[in-house]
Please model this.
Amino acid sequence: PRVVFSGIQPTGVPHLGNYVGALRQWVNLQHEEKPSTKLIYSIVDLHAITVPQKPEVLKQRKREVLAALLAIGLDPERCTIFYQSSVPAHSELMWILACTASVGYLSRMTQWKSKLSLDSSSTLDEGPVGSRLKLGLFSYPVLQAADILAHRATHVPVGHDQQQHLEFARECVTNFNHAYGNHLVPPSTITSPAQRIMSLTDPTSKMSKSHKAQRSRILITDTPEEIRSKIGSALTDSTPGVSYDPATRPGFSNLLEIYSVFDAEKRSPVQLAQVYANSSPKVLKEAVSDALIAGLHGIRDRYLDLSANESFLEMIEKEGARKAQESAQETMEIVKSAVGL
Ligand code: ATP
Ligand code: MG
Model:
């Protein structure tokens, strides 16, 4: 049986990168997959606390992300939508996987380095790195592997930045199965066809929820005015004309990528660059804004309605926790018995 699993951190309202790289696909899978495919989507609050969070803010953001997921069209009847911490099996399986996971492999992963603003060549051996790096952030990929494996997921739709972690999840399966027999299922990645969406203020790094600069990202709940203003002030370059070249013109290339994703005529970034070759940045930015505003239309209003309906959100939370606990139970029984617990 096919099982789809994916997650999003409650570190803020989802942005354009999350939407294009992952969430849009979550919605589409509801129609593309057969009704027998289980669709399991988690708001991964245990992952969020790998970097400092204010408790009250975290609580608020979990609700915001839940409302946002419903606003983009996830159907709680069709999917299981739940908070990671409401299913203890995730933490429990993480520990068991950690006992056969290698520190050397984890130390080569890039996410902990980028979250600490370290260079990708940094190593654990550097003294100051070891004391700043918390064990939770370092072992993040083990928890992510547990999320996926607890539900026996066969397919995991994620953005490009998560491919490395999926690779590691397969490594966890190999290690566990080697030690205890063939009990865990290796997952396949479903990567989004769209490129990574880059930051509007620094187009050489990815758009991110936890980046300080508000103007670096478009939230899927932004008003048309906010979208126009953020796109209008996006960093480009001073070379005349518009062309698509991510290496030398990252700002323009990112705008063209975004435009292409939402273009009604489905033109590629390269085709759009030809159309706007002799246009001013302002003209291109207006066109990108128009396409984006049309593409995100309706999400904001549904989000505001849902956010105001606390009792409905509470009901969705309870039902999601129940379904997810049930889904993880089978694996936990198999795993614990295999390990001799
Ligand atoms: P944080 O900065 O807190 O890590 P984030 O923006 O990276 O937040 P996540 O919750 O870590 O968001 O990731 C949710 C999903 O969105 C993942 O599948 C990830 O691959 C995808 N994603 C995140 N940022 C981008 C981006 N800029 N472009 C495309 N996909 C992205
Ligand atoms: Mg992230």
Q: What stands out?
A: The pocket of adenosine-5'-triphosphate (ligand 1) is lined by residues 8-9, 11, 17-18, 20-22, 158-159, 161-162, 196-197, 206-210 (CB under 6 Å). The CA atoms of residues 30 and 78 lie 7 Å apart.
